[in-house]
Design brief:
CATH topology of the largest domain: Glutaredoxin
Order of helices and strands: EHHEEEEEHEEHEHHHHHEEEHEHE
Number of helices: 11
CATH superfamily of the largest domain: Glutaredoxin
Oligomer: single chain
Largest sheet: 5 strands, antiparallel
Shape: globular
Low-confidence stretches: 1-42, 315-331
Structural class: alpha+beta
Number of domains: 2
Mean pLDDT: 84
CATH architecture of the largest domain: 3-Layer(aba) Sandwich
Number of strands: 14
Helix content: 25-40%
């Protein structure tokens, strides 16, 4: 079972009351729609009646006001005769983006995935998954890379964390490299973002200590509240290879907030709207995945990459300043 940010009528009303946007929302029936810009390279802009398209999309997804709809400008598409149009629905901190392919006359829209037989089917995801300076464990240069988008306050993430921590290294000591990405669901979890920022503070001090924190916070999830989060973190990390005075200052300054927002934005670009979500060599697996199901995919990828060599970790590696504990805590490699 997932905690999913669903943009449906009832949820929209609740989110409107609880998470009012910082900027004034448009009046009911209005929409935030970009004006058409210059035609993209490769051809003229298709003719799109954005008002008509907005009405169609609202009906298709049940997105009534006050959900805002943003219809992006058409961009060159992945196949001849069609253009790519991104459409995002948003309300407060909840958002959902859909990709459509539109014909030049603007009358026919295709919703779905377009594949190229010459490329890995998950290449678009792989290209976006920049794992630089993210907490990780496993082997650099492994044929399988798993990237998880997770939320420290999410109970389903807690269950998935147990599965991953108990099995990955034991079963795949050299064939898998795992990375953790923060994706706090702020509209559902009041202390998730603060916990993510604190985790980044710890990671910068000692990458290995991040995993002590990761395991501790999931184990004590039910005992944590917004008003005791900081004190519990400082108590838990005392004597764990972290300067708690420095950690306290980092938490108060919120200096790592941009880093958490960056991984959240990366998740949005990958159409992540719930937690946990795993990407196994770019392949999306949503929700608390059972170990048997995950193992089956990992085993397949290990065998497949022996000849395909179009995923996993490219550990050439990129040039970067050394980071203490980088051998276990982070990698400068990238996904292929």
């Amino acid at each position: 079972m997932l905690r999913t940010i669903a943009l449906v009528f009832a949820a929209a009303a609740a989110l409107c009351a609880q998470n009012a946007p910082k900027t004034a929302a448009p009046a009911p029936g209005k929409t935030a729609v970009k004006k058409a810009s210059a035609a993209p390279s490769g051809g003229d802009q298709p003719h799109i009646d954005k008002a008509k398209l907005e009405a169609y999309v609202r009906h298709l997804f049940v997105w009534p006001p006050p959900i805002e709809i943003n219809i992006g400008d058409a961009q060159p598409g992945p196949m001849p005769g069609f253009y790519t149009v991104k459409i995002r629905g948003s309300q407060g901190n909840a958002s959902q983006e859909e990709t459509f392919y539109v014909s030049k006359d603007g009358e026919k829209f295709i919703r779905g995935d377009v594949f190229d037989l010459e490329k890995n089917p998950f290449k678009e995801n792989i290209d976006k998954l920049n794992t630089g300076l993210q907490p990780g464990f496993g082997t650099q240069g492994a044929p399988v890379v798993i990237v998880e988008f997770s939320d420290f306050e999410c109970p389903f993430c807690r269950e998935e964390a147990k599965v991953l921590r108990e099995n990955l290294v034991k079963e795949y000591p050299t064939q898998v490299h795992f990375y953790y990405m923060n994706f706090p669901l702020e509209s559902l979890h009041p202390w998730a973002k603060d916990a993510a920022m604190a985790g980044r503070c710890i990671y910068h001090q000692n990458p290995d200590a991040f995993w002590t924190y990761h395991d501790w916070i999931f184990d004590h999830q039910d005992e944590i509240m917004p008003d005791n989060l900081k004190s519990r973190i400082l108590e838990a990390m005392t004597g764990k290879g972290v300067d708690t005075t420095q950690l306290s200052s980092c938490i108060d300054s919120k200096s790592t907030e941009p880093e958490v927002e960056a991984t959240r934005d990366l998740g949005h670009s990958l159409e992540v709207n719930s937690t946990p979500v795993l990407f196994v060599n770019g392949r999306r697996m949503t929700g608390a995945v059972r170990w048997d199901d995950l193992k089956r995919v990992i085993d397949y990828e290990i065998d497949y990459q022996k000849t395909a060599k179009n995923a996993g970790e490219d550990c050439g590696c990129s040039v970067a300043l050394p980071t203490p504990g980088v051998s276990n805590g982070a990698s400068n490699g990238t996904l292929k």
